[in-house]
Amino acid sequence: MQHLWETLNTLFFGGPIPHTTFRWKKLPRSELGNTTSCLLGLTITMNPSRTSCDFADYVLLDFLSTLVHESIHAFLQSYACWSCRSWDRDYMEGGHGRSFQMLARKIEEAFPQLLGLPVRSGRLDSFLGDFGVREGKEKGRLKGCVPSVHDLEMWGFEDIDPGVRNEDVRVLIHRARAMGDV
Ligand SMILES: [Zn+2]
């Protein structure tokens, strides 16, 4: 998984982020993964016993999607400017603000073209979690903080499909492979 994470970073973020490690660990509640930092660097943790269930029985695509989600957190935690005046608005408490949404949407678009597989970063659920609409670890961090209409348009939430069945996943994979052939 560490190798896969490094490959994803080479493809989408210009190379592996230094001093970052990966580990599997059972996490509390419904948490699929998290990215934490300390003086020694970053740690991406993924829960082996839970998936997002976005791809029916194709759990590998779920784990891949969670890894993409945490890779975006790792990238922003490493390279976003925490002193910048716009940091609060761009990153947002909870981590799924404008910067996360823009990166995640672009990666969801590019991933099928580059790798022939669909990916879902869970960006809508995470945002709703931050906003207090979804249950979970990140519940309610953004009470009273509403993104602009322009942001919501740019983030393209309306393009996100709800949960899908196996047949839908097969169609998704087929379409993703076709995009890679263009
Ligand atoms: Zn997240």
TrEMBL record:
Residues 2-112 form the SprT-like domain. It holds the Pfam family SprT-like. GO terms for biological process: response to stress. InterPro entries: SprT-like_domain. This is SprT-like domain-containing protein. It comes from Bimuria novae-zelandiae CBS 107.79.
